# Entry
Amino acid sequence: MLTKEQIAQRISKELQDGFYVNLGIGIPTLVANYVPKHMGVEFQSENGVLGMGPFPTQEQVDADIINAGKQTITTVPGASFFDSELSFGMIRGKHVDLTVLGAMEVSQNGDIANWKIPGKMVKGMGGAMDLVASAENIIVAMMHTNKKGASKLLKKCSLPLTGVNCVTTIVTNLGLLKVENRQFVLYETAPGVSVDYIKSVTEGDLIVAKNCKKMLI
# Structure
């Protein structure tokens, strides 16, 4: 099975030169650590940063430079800082080419639930709803099952929705799947993970692509 770092590393292969990318809280923030050296990608954070770099070493930590998850970050040459109005203008104006989000649940319809568990206190939705409403290319980075072993890839989400019919690709610790025709399509399996096992822990309708292959990390 893939580690969180390996999930992020696989997602980094979906980046393209010149992309503007928003990274959500959790696993998605790790993607910035794996950008190919030849590629020019601008990472945006909704708290008002454009030009995020990898996570800092201990010597590089600056408590005043953080991402939306309040983690300390580095910035690349030419990075800029601005207010939330401009930041959300970028998002709502569809100037972000790719959004990478974590999720608690994803449905076979492409719905995503990633902001609230009923009965648990949350500070608010943050920028998640704006991102899923505005982005045309959303990749979800998540564990395939919850801590109890139950599937997080469902026929229908049980938690409050963040967005409807918006997820295009999912990378879990077990493989890479896409949402197509209201079902999950398995395109890549993680090293050492069988197709049968992935089927057994996926509640939603799952088909295996004809060109399904082992994932290369």
The domain at 4-214 is CATH 3.40.1080.10 (Glutaconate Coenzyme A-transferase). DSSP finds four helices and 13 strands in the chain. The chain has one domain: 4-214. The chain has a mean pLDDT of 93.
